[in-house]
Design a protein that fits this description.
- The chain has 208 residues and is an alpha/beta fold.
- The protein contains 7 helices and 7 strands; from the N terminus they run αβαβββαββαβααα.
- The chain has helices at 4-13, 43-55, 90-101, 134-143, 165-169, 178-196, 200-207; strands spanning 22-28, 61-63, 66-73, 76-83, 108-114, 122-125, 150-154.
- A 7-stranded mixed beta sheet has the order 2-3-4-1-5-7-6, with helices on both faces.
- The longest helix is centred in the last third of the chain and has 19 residues, at 178-196.
Length: 208
């Protein structure tokens, strides 16, 4: 089994644009606008920003109610998406791209924040419920399926039961949590090509 450093090398050797048909969609969830850029709810956007820098691609074209870009990853041509609908309507953008490119639901990979995981923790799943996450709830509704892989990045639970959940997820990531959150983002970047290659169980074994 390849170690993490080998995965970095493999991915960075495969950063050229592919000319084949788009077969996979990678969605990072978040809210548009500078005021949300550093919030817990935007770790999906942050992951795509990291990925775009590592792969030298731009996720800046406006289409499907989203910012998109495409490139090669895991031996496939992949569409990368940051929905601009705000979190609760993320599924609208995802559905439009899936229908346009005829992408199987199982080839849609979603990266998002999870309050049930502590900062620094990451979980990869083949499928599952929305877990109370409104962005995932919207995607499940618009795709009429929950059978898509997802990468959940921990942002921690709200500090007490009385604390408003929206205020928590829309708050900036605490200074003491930023380094471990970035470590998760790096791991998500490494896990993505394995998932795209159909090696989700291997990715789960390495990174969960």
């Amino acid at each position: 089994m390849s170690n993490i450093f080998d995965l970095f090398k493999q991915i960075e050797r495969k950063n050229d644009l592919s000319t084949g048909n788009i077969t996979h969609l990678v969605v990072g969830l978040g809210n548009p606008g500078e005021k949300y850029a550093k919030t817990r709810h935007n770790v999906g956007f942050m992951t795509l920003d990291y990925l775009s820098d590592k792969l030298n691609l731009k996720i800046t074209k406006s289409k499907f109610k989203a910012l998109i870009g495409d490139g090669e990853l895991g031996g496939k041509r992949v569409l990368f998406m940051k929905p601009q609908t705000f979190m609760n309507n993320s599924g609208e953008a995802v559905r439009e791209a899936v229908e346009f490119y005829k992408i199987p639901v199982s080839n849609v990979i979603v990266i998002f924040d999870d309050i049930s995981l502590q900062p620094g923790k990451m979980r990869i799943r083949q499928k599952g419920s929305d877990g109370g996450h409104n962005g995932i709830k919207s995607i499940i509704y618009h795709l009429n399926s929950n059978e898509f892989p997802r990468i959940k990045i921990g942002v921690g639970a709200k500090p007490n039961p009385e604390y408003d959940l929206a205020d928590w997820v829309l708050g900036d990531i605490a200074k003491e949590d930023r380094e471990v959150t970035m470590t998760c983002i790096e791991k998500a970047y490494l896990a993505l090509p394995l998932i795209i290659e159909g090696k989700t169980e291997q990715a789960m074994g390495m990174f969960n």
